[in-house]
Amino acid sequence: LALETDLRRALERNEYLLYYQPQVDPSSGEMIGVEALLRWQHRERGLVMPAEFIPLLEETGMIIPVGEWVMRTACIQAHKWLDEGRPLRMAVNLSARQLRQEDLAERVRSILLETGLPPGLLEIELTETIVMENAGEAVIALNRLKDLGVRIALDDFGTGASSLAYLKHFPIDTLKISSAIIVELEDETDAAIAGAVISMARNMKLSSVAEGVENVQQLDFLRREQCDSIQGYLISRPMSAQAFAEMLDKLP
Ligand code: G
Ligand code: G
Ligand code: MN
Ligand code: NA
User: Fold this and answer.
1) 23 lies in a domain?
2) In DSSP terms, which residues pair with 42 in a beta bridge?
3) Atom number of ligand 1 nearest to Cα 238
4) For the stretch 42-61, what's the b/e string if a residue is b when 16 or more beta carbons lie within 10 angstroms of its beta carbon?
5) I need a labelling partner for 187 at 20 to 30 A (CA). Which of 1, 27, 194, 221 fits?
6) For residue 252, is it within any domain?
7) Ligand 2 centre distance from Cα of residue 113 (Å)
8) The domain containing residue 28 runs over which residues?
9) Is residue 160 part of a domain?
10) pLDDT digit string (tens) for 145-199?
11) For residue 176, how far is its CA from the centre of ligand 3 (angstroms)?
12) Model ipTM?
C-alpha cells in the first residue's frame, strides 16, 4: 500500500507537523491553552488531515513513534511559549494504542524532563470511548500519568457510552464537551445537556472546555453557563506554529 510506505517514511522525512488551536475563556477572552493537532505535509497530496492517516498509524503500530514525536514537539513548543512569558496549557491527543503502551508514563516523564516543561502545563486528552473501552486498565494507566503531575482531559464527552458513576474512578481534570453537542445548542435538549455537563464539571472541581464553537449564539450560551474555556472556528482555526507565533505577536 502506497500510503503505508509513505507513512513509514514520513517521520524520517520530517513531514509531520503540529497545528495549534487556541482555547479561550469565553468571558475574558484570555487564552488559556491550545490543542495540538497532527498534520502530515505530503510531497504530492499536500496537507493531509488526521482522519486520513491516524487509523492506519494505529493499525500498524506506527502511532507509537509518531505519538512520541507529537508529545515531544508539543512540549518543546509549550516550553518555548513559557520562556516568552506565555504559560499556555498544551493539550495532546492520545490514541487507544498509546494508552495500552506499558511504558507510556515513563516516556512522558522523559519528555517532560528533556524539554523542561512543567507537567501541569501538559494536558493529555483521551476520548470517553477510549477510556471506557477498557476502563479497568485505563484507570491504572491514567493514574500513572496523573502521578507525573500532568492533567488529563476526557475528550468528546457526552457522546460516548460512559456511565457518569464511572467518572469518579478516573483521575481527570477536564471535561471536553463534544462538538456534536455544541453544534446542536439551538436544540433545547442539547442545551440542557451542555449546561448540565458544565455545572457537573464545576461541582466536581473539573474544568470544562466546549469544542466546535462556531457562532456567537453558542459563545453567549457558554459564557452564561460559565464554561471555563471554548475552542472552535469562531475563535480561531487550528494554525501552524508560525501562524500561531504571528497571532501571539499581535496580542497585548
Ligand atoms: O483537526 P482535526 O481534523 O485535527 O483532528 C481530527 C481528530 O484527529 C482529532 O479529533 C483527534 O481525535 C485526532 N488527532 C489529531 N491529532 C492527533 C494526535 O496527535 N494524536 C492522536 N492520537 N490523534 C490526533
Ligand atoms: O480531538 P478532537 O476530535 O476533539 O479534535 C478537534 C477536531 O475538531 C479537529 O479536527 C479540529 O480541526 C476540529 N474543529 C476545531 N474547531 C472546530 C469548529 O469550530 N468546527 C468544526 N466543525 N470542527 C472544529
Ligand atoms: Mn481532542
Ligand atoms: Na474532541
Assistant:
1) yes
2) 46
3) 1
4) beeeeebeeeebbeebbeee
5) 27
6) no
7) 30
8) 2-246
9) yes
10) 999 999 999 999 988 776 788 888 999 999 999 999 999 999 999 999 999 999 9
11) 8
12) 0.97
Domain CATH number, residue 36: 3.20.20.450
DSSP 137-186: HHHHHHHHHHHTT-EEEEEEETTS---GGGGGGS---EEEE-HHHHTTTT
Which residues lie closer than 8 Å to 144 by C-beta, 6 or more apart?
104, 105
The atom of ligand 1 lying closest to the CA of 49 is: 3
Interval between CA 234 and ligand 2 midpoint (Å): 11
* Residue for grid cell 513509514: 8
Q: How much distance in Å is there from the Cα of 209 to the middle of ligand 1?
A: 16
Ligand 2 pocket member 190 (CB < 6 A) = no
What domain count does the chain have?
1
Ranges of H-type helices in 164-250: 179-182, 188-203, 216-224, 241-250
Ligand 2 atom nearest residue 93's Cα: 1
